[in-house]
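Consider a protein example.
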Amino acid sequence: MKLFDVYPLFDVNIVKGQGCKVWDDKGEEYLDLYGGHAVISIGHSHPHYIQKVTEQLNKIGFYSNSVINKLQVELAERLGRISSYDDYQLFLINSGAEANENALKLASFTNGRTRVLSAEKAFHGRTSLAVEVTNNPKIIAPINNNGHVTYLPLNDLPAWEKELQKGDVCAVILECIQGVGGIKLATKEFAQGLHKLCKEHNTVLICDEIQCGYGRSGKFFAHQWLGIKPDIITVAKGIANGFPMGGVLISPEFEPVYGQLGTTFGGNHLACAAALAVLDVFEKEHLVENANEVGEYLMERLRSLCSCGTTTHITDIRGRGLMIGIDLDIPHKDVRQPLICQEHCFTGCAGTNILRLLPPLCLTKAEADLFIEKLKKVLASL
């Protein structure tokens, strides 16, 4: 048997990681400014994380959700406290797509509707409902194309109001900072107006914080920059630093019903131990604050690079915290490829001409400076 060939791969075999650096099987060191799609939140191979996961594995790694798991209770209490959502309820699953699936199902269970509003260029996952609310027809199979979704321009409040006034919208799902869409930010005016409209029309507001949440924006959730409180919040990626896990934070206005939602692997002992270790490190090392401080520093360095006349290839810099988009006037592959192959630095991409930076939240200013030097060398060679 061979692998199903759906991923275009760089010819690099990563075998080890530490902090914001990884190494390949030849011993070459790489600076990681991508964190495996924003998954690595506290850094690769953090010693506290390894200790806690190992301790739990030596006790029990998994048992079903038919018995008490006090690690789930502890995680819910601590996540509520650190995120300022201690009155919400937590449902644990395995991935971001699964989080969005359950959020949309819960919304539909609650108001009995089926139509969803989603933003143009949105990405919410690849499973049935999650992919349908993702604005990319290339990955929506005919069986998923069920006519539930209306896509609207981000920050165009009148367009969203027009649809909500029809009275049939089950849910609005929103990335307050679009990831795959190119680090496009929702404005405070749009978000607050949309929140008000959802309340008026009995529509559930879901904030997809899978990529932009969990400290990445410099606040625990990106929507907290905008002064709104959604009905449902979905999380994954950074929640367990690489261990597969997702979660749905649910307003106390939603009443749980036995059997309404369910999962086999979600919230297992090992996943909870990993997630609790992440929160330990967040609090001890002040990683949310670090993301804000270092992110601002890195964006300022990038803007200086753009304005100093050394290159004309950068056309815009935007983002919050350690979620940064770099617009280029050339295809991103012309920059990303030599960054990896010559400068040994990983970045992400979006669209055809956007570099996407999603480093571990422990990135230092010295590592940000190192990235700037590597980027300058690549851009100067083009």
Remarks:
- The chain is about 35% helix and 20% strand.
